[in-house]
Amino acid sequence: MSLRVGEILAAIDGRAPFASAAEWDAVGLQIGDPEREVSAVAVVHELTTRLLDGIISVGAELVVTYHPLLFRPLSSVTAVPGAEGRIFSLIERRVAVISAHTNWDAAPGGSSDSLAAALEIRDPEGFAPSMTGGGDEISYGRCGSFGGPLGDLADLVQLRLGVRPRLSGPLDRVVRRVAVLPGSGGSRVEDAVSAGADAYVTGDVSHHEARRAADSGMAMVDAGHAPTERPGVRALYDLVAGIVDRPVEMVGGDDNPWEL
Predict the structure, then answer these.
(1) For residue range 130-156, what is the model confidence (pLDDT) as tens digits?
(2) Which of 193, 216, 224, 237 is least crowded, fewest Cβ atoms below 10 Å from its Cβ?
(3) DSSP, residue by residue, 32-73
(4) What structural domains and CATH numbers belong to the chain?
């Protein structure tokens, strides 16, 4: 039975509507022909040069990526290092690319829900509202119950996300509510405080953002950009594997620039 790029695109849209992505985001079909038939699919966290070789080696005709490959306007597409060269290679090989990013963060069972579940946060609710490209307001983070010391939360981060986090706060402090936002969430410190969080797990937290959290009485847990997105990328793989009745490969985990 044939399966086209556009059919996979529509199925992803049904679970994580592309219209729910943040207004600054770039999601949906980024490269390729919606009518092209697909026999093998790859899922990646971010489409880097190293992972491109793996995608080609598994014979993928479609890549579903969490981080968008095309994010800013390009003046040319040529065989040079960086994103421009990767786009050139994919077009040359007729490999289609779909990005599911902040729409997957917001979706039920998506990146934010998956991060909350990995850290055993109960009854998560939405926080950190932002505007979508269609002008609607939607929450991309989650905040729920935890009820344990900060040290236990840090241990869970290390166990489930594979990274030792930076902490702002005493290990024996009891945290009853925890907010999470995958990726870069330092700018949403005030939203986490307003949601009643005693601790906030995210990535890319600056010195001044951590200071604002401390001044507000909230502990910060900076687990890094890519590690906080890992549960969501695994969930994205499960989503795609449930849509596609043919081989789906998770290629390369995440190509985190801060880790070997």
Answers:
(1) 999 888 999 999 999 998 999 999 999
(2) 216
(3) S-TT-B-S-EEEESS--HHHHHHHHHTT-SEEEESS-S--S-
(4) 5-101+230-250 (3.40.1390.30), 105-228 (3.40.1390.30)
